[in-house]
Amino acid sequence: MAIASGSRHRLAAIAEVTYGTTPTTPAFTTLRHNSCNIGLSKDAVESEEIRGDRQITCFRHGNKSVGGDIEGELVYGEYDSLIEAALCGTWSTDVLKAGTTRRSFTIERTFQDITQFMRYTGCEVNTMSISIAPNSMIGVSFGFIGKDQSIAQTAIASSTYSTLTDTCQFDSFTATINEGGSPIALVTEMEVTLENGIEPQFVVGSSTTLRPSIGRCNVTGSITVYLEDQAMLTKFQNETESSLDITMTDPDGNTFQIEIPKLKYNSGQPDVSGEGSVTVSMDFQAIYDSVDASNIVITRNPV
To answer: How many domains, the chain?
Structure first.
């Protein structure tokens, strides 16, 4: 009996025209990924009836929830549609800002060695995180909230799948960071997270969600720096507005820039736990910037 192997796992997605409905004859985009745990979960509904024999006589499955994460390494052009969906914006001349346009996907997981297909409809990007650390590829993660799951042993009729790309990932060696408009070379770690506050909505008569509600575009993050002087700590102490922009360049020369045009730091403490170099971890909150009309701006520049 064959057992599924992670090395044969294929991940693919296609944008939906109608929320929760997979397009006919879908042309799936095959996604590069390091891990995926998107799946179906159900609430439990149990009778609270009191009986003299102390038994439970009825247990049912309740509301269905689809959710989980796709984790990978940032590759130029690989996740543009998911990043666009995360920001609810639209790429315009290679610039993307936060907006209000919602997009959903059908995500398909294929365990190719045992020919099993698991499909998740109505998947919207609820969270996106990009992380940078020394001596590593730049990580990216997308968290999804979806509608329903189906399982099959065959592909959808007339479906097609794109060929996986082999473009090299962005890495921390070629990343440059500006803080407050000036280069900063003291960063040991950085993470930017976007949260959309998507929450399922259930009604009587159905176990699957209506289209979920969506909240604000909340961009937060953290930056860890070596303690060199009081400049960064003073910005936290005085509630001084600042900015960050990170530019990444791949081996082919493509660049990808993430800009937080206005932010405030909300932590900063130089803890000492040993005799080595002292670092300061500073959390930040992005704020709407009237000049860019967004709290985050992403720019892609192909070779």
So the answer is: 1
